[in-house]
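Possible regression after last week's pipeline update?

I re-ran a chain I had predicted before the update to compare outputs. Posting the input and the new output here so someone can diff against the archived version. Not blocking, just want to make sure nothing changed silently.
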Amino acid sequence: MSGLERALLFAREEGEQLAGQDFARESAEGLDLSDLTFRQVRFARCRFADCDFGGAAFYGCVFEDCAFDRCRFAVSFWKESDLSGCRAQGGDFRKVRFKDCRLSGLRLRYANFTGALWERCALSDCDLAESACQELRVVKTTLEKIDFTSASLFRAVLKGADLSVCTLDGVSLSASCQELKCAKIHASQAAVVARILGIEIAE
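New output (post-update):
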């Protein structure tokens, strides 16, 4: 058993909280970490497989170059945390709440963000291609070079969001494209909206 696994299991047994620790190049597999609270914990190049973080809370945590294979984060809460260079393709992030967080260089292809909230966050260079972002709410959040290729944004709330440097090719929207109402897009992205509305653009 790795030192990370021992620390997580001890936190589960003794107080439902893991605080002020630093882990590097360790792994954890098949653990039930639901509803656990993490405070000021740093993970660097760690690997998690088949772990359940459902309902967990992360305060001031740092994840650097970590891998999450088949992990579940549904209904988890993130506050003032920093995730960079991590991979969680196909991850379950339904109804997750991110507040005042920074997410950069993440690989989240096929992830499920249905009903999630990004509030006062900064996202950059993230791959969300073919992800499920139905009813996602984006509030006072910056989006820079986010790849939404073929993602579902059906009923997402993007009011005020600047999508002008994001990739929107093949995204799924409602018939009226209401998701993009009051959002900012680049002139070159208007063709995406036109195709959804059935408008043919002359060359």
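Follow-up from reviewer: compared with the archived run. The first helix runs from residue 3 to 14. Marking as no regression found.
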